[in-house]
Amino acid sequence: MIEQPPQNPAGEYVCPKRLTNGLKHELIEKLESVPSRASEQVSGMGDSQLDTKYRNWTIRQIIHHLADSHMNCYVRFKWALTESTPEIKAYDESRWSQLLDAKKLPVASSLTILEGVHQRWAGMLRLLSDEQFDLAFFHPELGKAVTLAQALPSYVWHSDHHLAQIEWVRNHHGWKN
């Protein structure tokens, strides 16, 4: 019997009730570590390994998705900081993952994007006041405003979720990094 990958290898997302200063610091540190953690997860992988699927996406598609998603989120944060509850542009991540760049290009470019975006994002977050974390963007798919204090833990979990998928594949196949 083939073992099915878990839906949420990093566990279910649980939104914290309050973003304390300690939790904020911890989340920013974790967000900043995403590029190095992603690089470590795919270190030494060849094309056949990168093209191994975890449920519906290959490892390659997951890395490209992280870059796509986190670029979008960084921009969402910037909009929330500069506009009054702006409505963000949602995108179809499944369709983006089916584009040839997500299926074929080397992951190095997306790892570079993650490095730059996360460096800027974490740096920006460290400079925000508590009041700025209360600013929000309107998410049309959710039908509600999302504060930056709510979005930050969500995107940290998003990173953990996808990196845990890659880790599951590595462990399942016995690939060491």
In short:
This protein has 177 residues and is mainly alpha-helical.
How many distinct helices?
8
Low-confidence residue ranges: none
Using only C-alpha atoms, the radius of gyration works out to: 17 Å
CATH topology: Four Helix Bundle (Hemerythrin (Met), subunit A)
β-sheet strand percentage: 5-15%
| Extended strand count | 4
What strand line-up does the widest sheet have? 1-2
Return the structural class.
mainly alpha
Largest sheet: 2 strands, antiparallel
Overall helicity:
55-70%
The average pLDDT score comes to 96
H/E series, N to C? Answer: HHEEHHHHHEEH
Main features:
177 residues, mainly alpha, Four Helix Bundle (Hemerythrin (Met), subunit A), two-stranded antiparallel sheet, two-stranded antiparallel ribbon, 8 helices, globular
